[in-house]
Design goal:
Elements lengths: L1 E2 L10 H11 L21 H6 L2 H16 L2 E13 L1 E8 L13 H14 L5 E7 L3 E8 L2 H9 L12 H12 L6 E8 L10 H10 L2 E8 L3 E9 L5 E8 L3 H10 L3 E5 L2 H14 L3 E12 L1 H19 L9
Parallel strand pairs: 3-4, 3-6, 6-7, 7-10
Antiparallel strand pairs: 1-2, 2-11, 4-5, 8-9
Helix pairs in contact: 3-10, 4-5, 4-9, 6-7, 7-8
Length: 328
C-alpha cells in the first residue's frame, strides 16, 4: 500500500497550529449575575454526554478526506516471459572409474554437484539426463522442472549397469531424446573419464547422427591420467575395493566428437576446472528471453470518501435530530 500524493498529509498539522493559537489566546471573560448558583446545577443526561462526541465526528470526517486526497493505492507487477529455450541433455558416465579419488570425495560426486548447480541456472530450458557405463539409459526425459532433474542427478550411482564405458551408447541415447525436439538449439553435454571400451554403437557414428539432427555436443573429460586410487573389483556386498591404477584417457576421441558436431571439448583436472567449464557452456548456450511487465494499480481513495460522507451525514442527523438543542 502506497500514497500517490502524500503531500496532502501535511494538512494534519493545521489542528496543531490552531490548537497552539487557541492555547495562547486570552480567554474572554463573561459575567452573569444570578440570585443563587443552584439554578445552574442540574442532572446530566445521555444526550449531554453524546453531544460532546459530535465534534469528533466532524474531525474524523476531515481526517478521512485528507487521507483520500493523498490517494492510497496498491501497485503490483506481473511479468510475462517469452523464452526461446535450449533443450539440453546431460550424458554422464557412471562407470566404476568415476569413483576414482583424484577428486574429493570422488569424480562422480563432484560431477553431480557441478551439474546440479548448472541446472539451477537454466530456469527456462528443458533439461534431460542420460546415464551410461557399458550400456546407457534415460534417467530423466526433457523437462522444465529443475528440481526433478536435480533429484535424478543426486540419485546417480555406480553399479546400476554393467561395468565399462560405452561413450557411443551414451551419446546416441542422449541424441535420441532430442531428435523430436522442436527447439532451435539442441545440446548434449557428455561427461566421461575414460576410453570407449563397450557398446555396439561407435562414438563417431553417434556423433554423425547428432550432426545430422542439428545437435551440438560439448564433451567434458574429467580426471587425471596416470596412477590414481581407483576401484579394482566389486565386493560381494556391492562396494568396491580400491588400489592404485594407471588410468588412460582418450582425449582425441572426445575432441573429434565435439569438432564433428560444432561443439567444444573441455578438460577438467579439478573441481574448479569443471565449474569453469559449465560456466562457459552456460554463456555459450544463452536462452533468448523477452520479458514484458504489466503494471496494475488499484485505487482505495473512494473507500475513505464514502466513510467520510457516512460520518458527515450521521453527524448531521444526530445534531439536528435526537441531539438537537432548543434555545428559548
Amino acid at each position: 500500500m502506497i500514497l500517490a500524493e502524500p503531500i496532502w498529509l501535511l494538512l494534519f498539522l493545521l489542528p496543531l497550529f490552531f490548537g497552539f493559537r487557541r492555547r495562547n489566546a486570552r480567554p474572554a471573560e463573561i459575567s452573569l449575575r444570578l440570585p443563587q448558583a443552584s439554578g445552574l446545577q442540574g442532572d446530566s443526561t445521555w444526550r449531554s454526554y453524546a453531544r460532546r462526541w459530535l465534534p469528533g465526528f466532524r474531525w474524523l470526517t476531515v481526517a478521512l478526506l485528507v487521507i483520500a486526497m493523498a490517494r492510497p493505492q496498491h501497485k503490483w507487477e506481473q511479468e510475462k516471459v517469452k523464452a526461446d529455450a535450449v533443450d539440453i541433455v546431460l550424458a554422464m558416465d557412471i562407470s566404476p572409474s568415476m569413483l576414482s579419488r583424484d577428486f574429493d570425495p570422488d569424480r562422480l560426486a563432484v560431477a553431480k554437484k557441478v551439474a546440479i548447480d548448472f541446472v539451477d541456472k537454466r530456469p527456462y530450458d528443458r533439461i534431460g539426463l542420460v546415464a551410461f557405463s557399458a550400456e546407457a539409459f534415460t534417467q530423466c526425459p526433457l523437462t522444465t522442472d529443475r528440481r526433478v532433474v536435480q533429484s535424478f542427478i543426486r540419485e546417480l550411482e555406480v553399479g546400476r549397469l554393467e561395468d565399462g564405458t560405452a561413450i557411443g551408447m551414451g551419446l546416441a541415447t542422449a541424441v535420441n531424446r532430442l531428435k523430436d525436439s522442436p527447439s532451435v538449439s539442441k545440446v548434449v553435454i557428455l561427461l566421461t573419464d575414460g576410453e570407449n571400451n563397450a557398446g555396439y554403437i561407435p562414438p563417431m557414428k553417434a556423433a554423425e547422427i547428432a550432426k545430422s539432427l542439428g545437435v551440438r555436443v560439448y564433451t567434458v573429460g574429467i580426471g587425471t591420467e596416470g596412477i590414481v586410487l581407483s576401484p579394482t573389483q566389486r565386493l560381494p556386498d556391492g562396494n568396491y575395493a580400491f588400489a592404485p591404477r594407471h588410468l588412460m584417457f582418450d582425449t582425441e576421441l572426445l575432441r573429434e566428437i565435439a569438432r564433428e558436431t560444432d561443439g567444444k571439448f573441455y578438460r577438467a583436472y579439478s573441481e574448479r576446472d569443471l565449474e569453469g567449464i559449465y560456466e562457459q557452456i552456460d554463456q555459450l548456450e544463452k536462452t533468448k528471453i523477452e520479458i514484458s511487465i504489466v503494471r496494475h494499480t488499484t485505487e482505495y481513495f473512494y473507500w475513505f470518501v464514502a466513510a467520510a460522507a457516512f460520518l458527515l451525514i450521521l453527524e448531521m442527523l444526530l445534531r439536528w435530530g435526537m441531539l438537537r438543542t432548543v434555545t428559548p
